[in-house]
C-alpha cells in the first residue's frame, strides 16, 4: 500500500506539470525499417551523431540509468541500434550483464500474448468476441452462469472481466479465487488472473500448448530467443534485451517482418494499440497508450485527467512490467526503446521513472 500511495502521488505531481500533446504524425513506412536476420547476431547500427542527436547529454543519461538499477538500455531508429548500454550484474549477480544475458519481461510480456491471441483469431481458431467459457469451460469462475457468460476473450484482453482483483493473490486462476465484482465491460481493473488464462484460451482453441503456438507463430519467425517460465500462478517471459527489441521492430512495422506478414490482420493490430474501452482510455489490448485525455493505473480505481507520460511523445505505445521493464514504440519518430532492470519502488509500471527518463531523452533525440 505504501508503494501505491507514493506512486499515485508521484503520478499526480508529474501529470499536473505538462499540457496534453496532440496525436503524433503518420508512422514510418515499414519498407524503411531494418529487420535483423532471424538466424544471425548481426545487427545494423547508426550513430547518434549522424542523426543529429545531442550526444553531450549521453553521459548524464547513462549515469541516471545506472543509478536506477538499469541492466539494459537500447534505442533503435527504424530498426537500427543507436544506443546500447548494459549495467550491473545478471539476475544471479554472478557476472556482468551483457547483450547475451537473460532478464524477465514481467507484465511487459502481456503484449506477446496479445499478439498471439490476434494471430489465433486471424487463423480462425477463435474470435475475441467469443465467450471465455467456450475455451475455459463452464464454471471457470465462481460466478453465477449468467454473469460468467458475459465475459469474452476481449474482456480478458482489456482488463474488463468484472472479476474481483482485490483478493490476497490477484494471480490465482482457480475458480474459487475468481469472484464477481461487476458485470463484464463495466469496470476496468488490472487483474493478472484473467490475463493468465488467455494462455489456456489459446491452447484450447489451437489444440497446441500456448508455448508451442507462440514459438511457431511469433518467436521463431522474427528470431527471438527466450522462454516462458512458470512461477506460482504467473507465466513470465525471459529473454535477452535484443529479443525484446525484435518484438518492438515487429510492432513498429505493423506486425510485418521483412516481406512476411506475421500477424496478417491490420484491424486487430490497430485495435490492439488503440483505446479498447471507455473506462481507461490509456489501455489497448494489454498495451499502454500515451497521449490520451485520461488514464487509470494498476491497483487503483482513480481516473487521472492526464496522459500516462507528459514528457514522452503522444503516439508512444508501451509494454510495461514491474520494476521498470519497458518496451516503447514511437511510430512518429521510428523509435523502439528497451529498458530492463530493477527499481527501488517495485511498482507495476513505474511512471515517475519513465517520465524522468523521457525528460532526459528529449534533450538528446532530435
Question: Could you characterize what this model shows?
Answer:
- This protein has helices at 2-15, 58-67, 110-122, 133-136, 145-148, 153-158, 192-196, 198-206, 210-222, 241-252, 266-272, 351-361, and strands at residues 70-77, 80-86, 103-104, 227-231, 234-239, 256-257, 260-261, 288-289, 317-321, 325-330, 335-341.
- With 366 residues, it is of the alpha+beta class.
- The chain has a single domain (2-361), classed as 3-Layer(aba) Sandwich (Beta-lactamase).
- The radius of gyration is 20 Å and the shape is globular.
Give a short overview.
30% of the residues lie in helices and 14% in strands. The protein has 366 residues and is α+β, with helices and mostly antiparallel strands.
Question: How would the blueprint of this fold be written?
Answer:
Elements: H1 2-15, H2 58-67, E1 70-77, E2 80-86, E3 103-104, H3 110-122, H4 133-136, H5 145-148, H6 153-158, H7 192-196, H8 198-206, H9 210-222, E4 227-231, E5 234-239, H10 241-252, E6 256-257, E7 260-261, H11 266-272, E8 288-289, E9 317-321, E10 325-330, E11 335-341, H12 351-361
Antiparallel strand pairs: 1-2, 1-11, 3-5, 4-5, 6-7, 8-9, 9-10, 10-11
Structural class: alpha+beta
The biggest beta sheet, please?
6 strands, antiparallel
Q: End-to-end span in angstroms? A: 39 Å
The CATH C-level name is Alpha Beta
Q: How are the strands of the biggest sheet laid out side by side?
A: 2-1-11-10-9-8
Amino acid at each position: 500500500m505504501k508503494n501505491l500511495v507514493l506512486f499515485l502521488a508521484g503520478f499526480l505531481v508529474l501529470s499536473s506539470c505538462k499540457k496534453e500533446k496532440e496525436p503524433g504524425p503518420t508512422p514510418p513506412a515499414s519498407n524503411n525499417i531494418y529487420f535483423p536476420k532471424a538466424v544471425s547476431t548481426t545487427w545494423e547500427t547508426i550513430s547518434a551523431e549522424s542523426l543529429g542527436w545531442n550526444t553531450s547529454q549521453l553521459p548524464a543519461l547513462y549515469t541516471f540509468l545506472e543509478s536506477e538499477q538499469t541492466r539494459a538500455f537500447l534505442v533503435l531508429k527504424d530498426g537500427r541500434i543507436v544506443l546500447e548500454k548494459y549495467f550491473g550484474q545478471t539476475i544471479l549477480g554472478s557476472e556482468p550483464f551483457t547483450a547475451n544475458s537473460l532478464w524477465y519481461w514481467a507484465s511487459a510480456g502481456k503484449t506477446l500474448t496479445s499478439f498471439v491471441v490476434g494471430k489465433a483469431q486471424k487463423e480462425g481458431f477463435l474470435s475475441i468476441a467469443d465467450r471465455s467459457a467456450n475455451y475455459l469451460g463452464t464454471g471457470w469462475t465462481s460466478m453465477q452462469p449468467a454473469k460468467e457468460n458475459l465475459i469474452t476473450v476481449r474482456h480478458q484482453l482489456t482488463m474488463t472481466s468484472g472479476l474481483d482483483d482485490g483478493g490476497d493473490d490477484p494471480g490465482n486462476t482457480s475458480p474459487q479465487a475468481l469472484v464477481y465484482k461487476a458485470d463484464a465491460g463495466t469496470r476496468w481493473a488490472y487483474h493478472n488472473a484473467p490475463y493468465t488464462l488467455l494462455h489456456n484460451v489459446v491452447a484450447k482453441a489451437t489444440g497446441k500448448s500456448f508455448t508451442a503456438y507462440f514459438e511457431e507463430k511469433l518467436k521463431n519467425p522474427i528470431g527471438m530467443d527466450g522462454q516462458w517460465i512458470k512461477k506460482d500462478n504467473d507465466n513470465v517471459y525471459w529473454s535477452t534485451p535484443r529479443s525484446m527489441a525484435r518484438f518492438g521492430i515487429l510492432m513498429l512495422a505493423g506486425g510485418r517482418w521483412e516481406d512476411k506478414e506475421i500477424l496478417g490482420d491490420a484491424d486487430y493490430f490497430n485495435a490492439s494499440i488503440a483505446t479498447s474501452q471507455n473506462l481507461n482510455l490509456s489501455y489497448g489490448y494489454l498495451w499502454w497508450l500515451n497521449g490520451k485525455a485520461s488514464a487509470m493505473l494498476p491497483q487503483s480505481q482513480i481516473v487521472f485527467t492526464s496522459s500516462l507520460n507528459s514528457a514522452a511523445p503522444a503516439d508512444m505505445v508501451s509494454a510495461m512490467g514491474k520494476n521498470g521493464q519497458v518496451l516503447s514504440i514511437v511510430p512518429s519518430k521510428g523509435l523502439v526503446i528497451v529498458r530492463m532492470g530493477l527499481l527501488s519502488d517495485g511498482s507495476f509500471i513505474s511512471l515517475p521513472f519513465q517520465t524522468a527518463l523521457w525528460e532526459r531523452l528529449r534533450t538528446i533525440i532530435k
